[in-house]
Specification:
The complex is a heterodimer of chains A (671) and B (232). Chain A is an all-beta fold. In chain B, strand 3 and strand 4 form a beta hairpin. The chains are: A mainly beta (671), B alpha+beta (232).
C-alpha cells in the first residue's frame, strides 16, 4: 500500500473515500455494425451478426468489402457472372484439336466455308473442323489480315498484292495491281476499306470481289489519315462512322472521305496500342498500352480492370490482346503479373506472368480462366467465336512456339458456363477483406454458413464439392503481438443446402486443452508495475485465435465430373465486433490540510490538492493513474466536482483557510 | 341524364381555346417565417411502461454503429442534391456503369419549363443519347393526382422521343432487384435465360410481384381513364 494515499495520479498520492470508488467499462460490449462495408448485414435474433454474400456479379478487384457483389480475386476457372451463384467456368481444350506443325503466331482466326482459317507471319493456314481436324498451309508467306464474305476469303500478304480465295480453294489476285501490302480490311457502309501497311493511306472499293480496290499514292480515292510515319493498325465500323486506329490516335473517316483525328494518344504511342478493340453494348472498347477505354462517340471512360491483389506488389493487368463479343459479354485475352497474396491460398501459384481470359459484362470484370501460367503474348494472339457451334477458338502466342497453343472452349448458349468443367487444376474464389466496416476493431466469428447446391461427395468419379478456407488478419500468439495473416481450412462442403463450418477458436476443445486462467485474458504482472506492457497475455504461441481485424474467405471448387460444377449460392459469416474495452473511474478524493494518512502527514493544504486536481483536469496529455489495487492505467481526468464538507478552525495557523473538501473525480482510460 | 354524374375536374377542363391545360400539382405552402417548436417534456426521463408490463428484449442493448447501408450505396448529399433513392441510382450510374454525369445522362433535367413553370417536367435521369428517361418514383406517386401527372409527363416525354422507365423506391432499396433492373434497362447480361442454381435467381419471385403490381397499376389507370376522365 502506498504510505501517503490510496491512489496516485500523475505520481502524486491522494487519499480517497473508499466507499465512493467505482470503476466501470465504458466501451460497448459489441456494437452492431450498421453496415458491413456496404454489404447486407442482417439479424439472426441472436448475439452474432450475419454478413451475407450471395452475388458476385460486380467482379473482382474489390480489396475491401465496399461492394456487396464484389470480390477480390479468383484463380483458375471461376465464373461469377451469373445472378446469385458462383461456379466453375468451362475448361479449355488444347488437346482435341491438333497443334499446327510450325505453331507460328496466328494474328487472326476466321471461319470460311465451314472451316477455320488463321493468318500470321507463317501465312494462311486452314484447320478443317467440318471433318477430322487437320491443319494445312493455304498460302505461304506473311499475311497481315484476312476478311471473309460468303463467297471469298480475302487476305493481305505482307508486301504483296491482296488475294482472294473462292470456296473451291482457288486463290487469285484481288483488286488492281497496285492493291499491295494492306494491313487490314473492313466492310463499312456497303464498301470495303483497306489500310496500307506502314502508311497512313486508306483505300476503298465496292465490288463484291474487290476488283476495284486500288492501292498506293496514285489512287485518286485514297483517304489519308494524318501524315505519314505511323501506319494504320486497324479499323472498326461504329456509330455509322469508320474509326481507323494508328498507334498515335483514333481517326474518323467521314462521308467526305477524309480522316480526322478524334482521339489523340500521340503522347503514349506504341506498337501495342489498339491490340484489343471491339464494339460491345453500344460502346467502342479499345486498348492503349495496358489501359482499356470505352468510347460512346462523345466521351472516353477508363474501364480498365482494377488490381487483383491486396498486397504490394499488386497483381495488375499488363499486355492486352484480342477482344471478342458473345452472349452479351466482352471477352478479352490479356496477361498480368501474378504476385501471390499468400502462399497458403490454394491455387494462388507463384510469381510470374499469366495470360487469362477476362470478361466484362458492362458492370464488372471477371477472370474466367488462366490460359497460361508461364508467360504469354496476347498482343500476338487471337480469338474467334464460332456462332454456329458456340465455341470460342483461340491462339495463345508465347515466347516459344512450343509453348504457343491453339485451343477452344465451349461457350454456353445462355449465360451459364457450359460443360466441360475442369477436373484438374485449382479453382478458387477469393473474397474481399471482410472488415465489417471497421478496420481496426477486432471481430470474432464462431462459424460460417455456406449455401451450396449440386454437391455430391461419395468418394466417386462424379463427386463435386467445395472447400472453404479463411485467411485471417489478426492477433496470433498473444494479445499484444503484431497482427498477422493466418490461414485456416474451415472445412469441406459435402452436401446440398446449408452447411455450418466452425472457425478456429470457436470451441474450447479447439485449443486442445482447457483454457488456463490466463489464456486470452490480460493480467497484471506485479513484478513489473511500471512496464507499459504489463497487460500482455501469456497465451501459448501455438494456440490459434478466431479473432481477426479482417478475414478473407477462400472457396475452392472441385469436380471429378466434367459435366458437373458445384454451385456456391451464398456465404453467411457470423461475427461479433469486439472493440477493446476501457474503463472509467469515479471516486471522491479527500482534500484536507495537513491530513494524516496512518502515521504519515500530508504536507499539502486542501487548496493545493484541489489546485493539483484542477491542473490534471486541464492536462492536454494523459496522466498515469494507479488505482486502489495498484494497477496502472493511462487516463484523462474528465471532470472535477468539489464539495466543501467542513471548516476546521486552527489556532496555530490563525486565519489560514482549512476547509475539508470532497473532490469527485471522473477518470477515463485511454490507450 | 346519367344516373351518376361525373364532374370533370376544373384543372383538366378544356380552355376556351380548346387546348387542355396541363395538370398542376398543388405546391406546398411556404411561409416566410418558420416558427420553430420545441417539446418541453423530457420524454427520455419519463417511464411510459407500466410497472406490470415486462418487455421481452432482444438480448442486451447493442448500439448500431457505422454508415447507413443505403447511404453506403449512394453518392453523398454534398455531391448530388437529391433524395436517397435518386442518389443510389446516381452512384450506380457513375460507379458501376461508368457513365458521365452531364454527358451520358442529365440529372434532374428540366423539360418543358421544368420547375419554373407549373406543369413542366423534371426528368430524374435523362439519357439524351439513349433516348430514355428513368423516373425515380417515391411513395407519393401512388396518389391519383400524381399518377395522372406521371402519365401525362410520360406522354410528353414520349412525344419528345424518350422512353420512360419508372423505378420505384422498393426496387432501389433491394440491392439485388435493383441490380437486375438496371442490367435489363441498359441491355446488359442479366438473369434472363440463366439460372440461379437450384433455387433459381433470388430476385425471380420479386420479379413476379413487380409484374403483377405493374399489371394492377395498368388496370387501375385504365379504370380511371375510362370512368373518371371520359374515356381514353
Amino acid at each position: 500500500m502506498d504510505p501517503l494515499g490510496d491512489i496516485r495520479i500523475n505520481g502524486k498520492p491522494y487519499r480517497i473515500d473508499l466507499s465512493s470508488y467505482r470503476d466501470k467499462d465504458l466501451a460497448d460490449f459489441s456494437p452492431r455494425a450498421a453496415v458491413a462495408g456496404g454489404s447486407v448485414a442482417q439479424s439472426e435474433l441472436m448475439l452474432y451478426q450475419p454478413l451475407y454474400i450471395t452475388d458476385w456479379r460486380h467482379g473482382f478487384g474489390f480489396t475491401w468489402n465496399t461492394d456487396a457483389m464484389g470480390y477480390m480475386h479468383s484463380m483458375g476457372n471461376i465464373d461469377t457472372r451469373q445472378p446469385g451463384i458462383a461456379m466453375l467456368f468451362s475448361a479449355k481444350d488444347e488437346t482435341t484439336l491438333p497443334q499446327d506443325s510450325g505453331n507460328n503466331n496466328k494474328l487472326g482466326i476466321v471461319k470460311f466455308n465451314g472451316d477455320l482459317y488463321t493468318w500470321g507471319p507463317a501465312g494462311v493456314h486452314k484447320l478443317s473442323i467440318s471433318g477430322t481436324p487437320v491443319w494445312s498451309l493455304i498460302f505461304a508467306g506473311a499475311v497481315n489480315y484476312a476478311m471473309v464474305t460468303n463467297t471469298y476469303l480475302f487476305f493481305c500478304p505482307d508486301g504483296g498484292q491482296m488475294k482472294k480465295m473462292t470456296t473451291a480453294g482457288v486463290i487469285t489476285d484481288a483488286g488492281i495491281d497496285t492493291a499491295d501490302d494492306f494491313k487490314w480490311l473492313i466492310m463499312h457502309k456497303g464498301e470495303a476499306y483497306a489500310g496500307e501497311d506502314s502508311t497512313s493511306l486508306v483505300h476503298y472499293a465496292s465490288a463484291d470481289d474487290l476488283s476495284d480496290m486500288e492501292g498506293g499514292a496514285t489512287d485518286e480515292g485514297k483517304i489519308p489519315c494524318g501524315f505519314g510515319g505511323f501506319g494504320t493498325l486497324g479499323a472498326v465500323s461504329f456509330g455509322n462512322e469508320l474509326y481507323v486506329f494508328r498507334r498515335d490516335g483514333v481517326y474518323v473517316v467521314g462521308t467526305d472521305k477524309i480522316g480526322r483525328r478524334i482521339l489523340d494518344y500521340s503522347s503514349e504511342a506504341t506498337s501495342d496500342n489498339f491490340t484489343g478493340k471491339a464494339i460491345f453494348n453500344g460502346y467502342l472498347y479499345y486498348s492503349v498500352r495496358n489501359k482499356i477505354y470505352q468510347w460512346n462517340g462523345s466521351r472516353v471512360v477508363d474501364v480498365t480492370p482494377p488490381r487483383m491483389s491486396d498486397q504490394f506488389p499488386y497483381s495488375e493487368l499488363r499486355a492486352i490482346g484480342p477482344m471478342v463479343v458473345a452472349n452479351n459479354f466482352l471477352y478479352m485475352m490479356a496477361n498480368w503479373v501474378n504476385y501471390p497474396m499468400d502462399s497458403n491460398i490454394p491455387g494462388i501459384g507463384s510469381q510470374g506472368t499469366y495470360t487469362s481470359l477476362f470478361c466484362f459484362d458492362g458492370v464488372g470484370w471477371h477472370k474466367l480462366l488462366d490460359f497460361s501460367t508461364s508467360g504469354g503474348q496476347p498482343q500476338y494472339s487471337s480469338m474467334f467465336v464460332d456462332g454456329d457451334q458456340t465455341i470460342l477458338y483461340y491462339f495463345l502466342s508465347n515466347s516459344t512456339a512450343a509453348n504457343s497453343k491453339f485451343g477452344k472452349m465451349q461457350l454456353g448458349v445462355t449465360n451459364i458456363a457450359s460443360r466441360p468443367h475442369p477436373t484438374t487444376g485449382t479453382n478458387v474464389l477469393i473474397s474481399s477483406r471482410l472488415d465489417m466496416g471497421f478496420r481496426r476493431v477486432d471481430k470474432f466469428s464462431p462459424s460460417i454458413l455456406i449455401e451450396a447446391s449440386n454437391i455430391l461427395k461419395a468418394g466417386g468419379a462424379t463427386d463435386r464439392w467445395l472447400t472453404i478456407s479463411a485467411l485471417m488478419m489478426g492477433k496470433g500468439a498473444s494479445e499484444t503481438s503484431g497482427d498477422r495473416l493466418q490461414y485456416f481450412v474451415l472445412g469441406t462442403i459435402t452436401r446440398n443446402g446449408v452447411t455450418e463450418l466452425n472457425f478456429p477458436g470457436a470451441s474450447l476443445s479447439d485449443h486442445g486443452a482447457h483454457l488456463t486462467s490466463t489464456e486470452g485474458l490480460s493480467v497484471w504482472n506485479p513484478t513489473q508495475p511500471s512496464d507499459p506492457k504489463q497487460w500482455s497475455a501469456p497465451r501459448t504461441a501455438t494456440v490459434p485465435m478466431g479473432v481477426y481485424k479482417y478475414v478473407i474467405l477462400i472457396v475452392q471448387f472441385h469436380t471429378n465430373n466434367s459435366d458437373q460444377s458445384p454451385i456456391l449460392e451464398g456465404m453467411t459469416l457470423r461475427f461479433l465486433l469486439r472493440p477493446d474495452v476501457f474503463y472509467g473511474y469515479n471516486f471522491n478524493v479527500v482534500a484536507a490540510t495537513h491530513s494524516l494518512y496512518g502515521d504519515n502527514p500530508d504536507s499539502r493544504t486542501a487548496g493545493e490538492i484541489i489546485q493539483e486536481l484542477k491542473m490534471l483536469r486541464n492536462s492536454k496529455h494523459p496522466v498515469e493513474f494507479i488505482d486502489i489495487y495498484g494497477l496502472i492505467h493511462t487516463v484523462y481526468v474528465s471532470s472535477v466536482t468539489n464539495t466543501g464538507v467542513e471548516r476546521h478552525e486552527d489556532s496555530d495557523t490563525g486565519a489560514m483557510r482549512n476547509i475539508e473538501t470532497l473532490c469527485n473525480l471522473n477518470l477515463v482510460e485511454v490507450r | 341524364m346519367p344516373l351518376t354524374r361525373i364532374r370533370t375536374p376544373r384543372y383538366i377542363k378544356p380552355s376556351a381555346k380548346g387546348k387542355q391545360t396541363r395538370i398542376r400539382i398543388p405546391q406546398p405552402e411556404e411561409r416566410p417565417l418558420t416558427l420553430r417548436k420545441r417539446d418541453v417534456a423530457l420524454w427520455n426521463q419519463i417511464n411510459l411502461e407500466p410497472w406490470w408490463f415486462t418487455l421481452h428484449r432482444r438480448g442486451m442493448k447493442r448500439p448500431k454503429i457505422g454508415e447507413d447501408p443505403l447511404e453506403a450505396r449512394a453518392v453523398s448529399k454534398s455531391q448530388v442534391n437529391g433524395t436517397l433513392p435518386e442518389r443510389i441510382v446516381y452512384a450506380y450510374l457513375i460507379n458501376r456503369l461508368r457513365l458521365v454525369s452531364g454527358l451520358d445522362f442529365d440529372f434532374q433535367s428540366s423539360q418543358n419549363g421544368g420547375r419554373l413553370e407549373l406543369g413542366g417536367i423534371v426528368a430524374d435521369f435523362l439519357f439524351p443519347m439513349m433516348r430514355i428517361v428513368i423516373q425515380v418514383q417515391g411513395p407519393t406517386h401512388d396518389t391519383l393526382l400524381r399518377s395522372k401527372k406521371d402519365t401525362e409527363q410520360e406522354g410528353t416525354l414520349a412525344e419528345m422521343g424518350y422512353m420512360v422507365f419508372a423505378l420505384d423506391d422498393d426496387t432501389i432499396y433491394n440491392e439485388y432487384l435493383f441490380e437486375e433492373w438496371m442490367r435489363r434497362a441498359f441491355g446488359l447480361a442479366n438473369g434472363i435465360g440463366g439460372s440461379g442454381g437450384a433455387y433459381g435467381p433470388h430476385e425471380s419471385s420479386m420479379d413476379w410481384w413487380v409484374m403483377i403490381l405493374a399489371r394492377v397499376k395498368d388496370i387501375e389507370n385504365l379504370y380511371y381513364r375510362t370512368f373518371h376522365f371520359g374515356g381514353l
